Design the sequence.
């Protein structure tokens, strides 16, 4: 019995020593019989994966169509002013103000002359005559009428042959009338009107005509003036708005050689500024023999 | 005889050109015939645009001062002649080289040379510093006065008009008609 008790006490003591040695780390400097073990290496785990068998097909036309359909559905329920935005998108070049350089405004447009005649009371007009004359005194446009004068008399710059007025050339008008009592009367423009740059539409194309004397220097006729550069900036705005090429350019001068030099200047300018190949501009050098002279550059933009 | 005699000066060549231009238009819209005058010795002796000299000198007024003969180099006349009526004297608005209302008439005489094969043609030019317009009825007289009114207002500011019927001053059509009637009576008696 005593022997059993003795063994039990020994076991208990041994167990107690083991427990206390784990809970309390050995004090520094004290001798310790335990060793630090460092394990080096990589954990290698092999993961096997399989690609799911899903096929993805993309049809860009289908995607675009759905967007267009969505946009149309949106517009169908949109207010009227939003619908107008789409309706107003140009399908061809228009002659409205260019967006890019709104400060530039060298281009004139019709009407060139606009009169609102006001007659004194008591005068009944019998017949009247409105005449536009050029620098040679020739009549380029004649309007006639019987009875009272219209509220507004205009000239769009097109002469009796259907040609646009000459660039940089003076024009006058005179309105002559006879009243029913037989008294003549007239109103005349004393200072001439001179147009140096004009835009007009013909055959659904935009025509821009600019007098050479404002585009190019007087002595070195192939060199652009400061004003000429600005005018060409405005011309380029219309090209950008159109984005339809080729643009046709006709250069009229007193000599074809001068016209060719001016074409070289214009080609370089447009190629550099618009980053377009030269083939985008169909240029033609022409000699002008008309009287009075009409040295000019004509841009035809589709 | 009833007539209008008028004189005065236009300011410049430019004004003359404008006057011609306007009276061309006025004539066109009124249906009047007109002719533009641009005369010198060559054109005048060639026979174009010769002014009638019937009613210029031998009239019954004594105020024909300034009439003179001209040398060929001084012959110059520019303006417009308006035929308001075919059967009546036209309204002349013609100016000399100084811009003065004027008419020039001329006569030519042929003088045989020594051997009768040579003929010497001699021209004589007579210059009148006024224009005389015979008017045969009241309507025509009144219409001519309206044109002169317009000319005085716009181009010939010193225009002086001598009107034996006093219509220029009074604008009395009835008085004008009486004067014309009396003038026609006097002519028929003569």
Sequence:
């Amino acid at each position: 019995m005593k022997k059993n008790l003795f063994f039990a006490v020994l076991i208990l003591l041994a167990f107690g020593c083991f427990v206390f040695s784990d809970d309390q780390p050995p004090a520094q400097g004290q001798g310790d019989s335990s060793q630090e073990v460092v394990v080096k290496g990589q954990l290698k785990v092999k993961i096997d994966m399989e690609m799911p068998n899903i096929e993805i097909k993309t049809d860009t036309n289908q995607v675009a169509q759905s967007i267009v359909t969505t946009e149309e559905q949106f517009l169908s329920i949109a207010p009227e002013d939003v619908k107008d935005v789409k309706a107003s998108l140009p399908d061809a070049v228009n002659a409205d103000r260019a967006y890019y350089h709104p400060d530039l405004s060298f281009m004139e447009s019709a009407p060139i002359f606009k009169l609102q005649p006001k007659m004194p009371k008591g005068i009944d007009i019998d017949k009247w005559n409105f005449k536009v004359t050029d620098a040679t005194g020739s009549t380029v446009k004649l309007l006639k009428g019987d009875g009272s004068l219209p509220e507004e008399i205009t000239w769009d710059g097109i002469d009796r042959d259907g040609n646009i007025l000459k660039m940089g050339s003076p024009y006058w008008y005179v309105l002559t009338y006879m009243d029913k009592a037989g008294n003549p009367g007239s109103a005349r423009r004393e200072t001439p009107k001179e147009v140096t740059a004009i835009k007009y539409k013909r055959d659904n194309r935009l025509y821009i005509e600019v007098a050479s004397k404002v585009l190019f220097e007087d002595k070195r006729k192939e060199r652009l003036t400061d004003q000429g550069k600005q005018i060409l900036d405005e011309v380029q705005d219309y090209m950008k708005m159109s984005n339809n090429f080729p643009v046709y350019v006709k250069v009229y001068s007193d000599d074809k050689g001068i016209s060719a030099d001016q074409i070289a200047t214009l080609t370089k300018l447009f190629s550099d500024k618009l980053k377009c190949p030269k083939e985008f501009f169909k240029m033609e050098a022409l000699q002008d023999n008309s009287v009075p002279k009409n040295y000019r550059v004509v841009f035809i933009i589709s | 005889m009833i007539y209008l005699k008028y004189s005065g000066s236009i300011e410049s060549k430019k004004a003359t050109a404008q006057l011609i231009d306007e009276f061309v238009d006025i004539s066109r819209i009124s249906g009047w015939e007109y002719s533009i005058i641009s005369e010198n010795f060559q054109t005048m002796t060639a026979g174009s645009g010769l002014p009638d000299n019937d009613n210029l000198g031998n009239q019954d007024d004594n105020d024909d001062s300034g009439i003179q003969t001209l040398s060929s180099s001084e012959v110059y006349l520019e303006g417009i002649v308006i035929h308001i009526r075919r059967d009546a004297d036209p309204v002349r608005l013609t100016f000399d080289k100084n811009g003065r209302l004027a008419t020039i008439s001329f006569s030519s005489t042929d003088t045989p040379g020594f051997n009768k094969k040579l003929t010497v043609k001699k021209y004589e030019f007579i210059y009148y510093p006024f224009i005389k317009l015979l008017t045969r009825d009241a309507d025509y007289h009144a219409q001519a006065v309206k044109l002169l009114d317009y000319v005085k207002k716009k181009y010939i500011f010193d225009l002086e008009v001598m009107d034996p019927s006093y219509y220029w001053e009074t604008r009395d059509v009835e008085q004008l008609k009486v004067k014309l009637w009396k003038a026609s009576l006097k002519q028929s008696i003569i």
Summary: The longest strand of chain A covers residues 170-179. Confidence is low (pLDDT under 50) at residues 21-31, 86-91 of chain A. Chain A is about 30% helix and 25% strand.
